[in-house]
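Message: Study each token:
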Amino acid sequence: MPVGWEDLAGPAAVNVGNPHAIFFVPDCDAVDLARLGPLIETDPLFPERVNVNVATVESRSAIRLRVWERGAGLTLACGTGACATAIAAMRRGLTERTVRVTLPGGPLTIAWGADNHILMTGPATESFRGSFDPAAYGPDIAGARA
């Protein structure tokens, strides 16, 4: 049975520790992912919900990607989404076994080794720094610190 939602059809399903539905489209930026993402994420087809990826293959070595993360919404970066999308593209013969995946938050390089291990490389940037008082969260958390 074919699977699709409006203009998004024929997804690849990949689980890299969490489930992803990947749609290859001509222009991932043209997809209304803020609207379609939650519809697909919560579809009964996915009883535990799913991450929704829309990807544009730009060349045999480059993919542009946007991700709707289950429970979080639109995200600037998603390492598992980049890995899942790269593997789906490789399995469909769309790219080589090493590919640059560019998300709104920046690029990652994904390599799928002959040993079936996936290697993700890219920059790491601190996005938040903070502190909290464990006592403000009750005795269980404050006691765990002791």
Notes: The chain has one domain: 4-145.
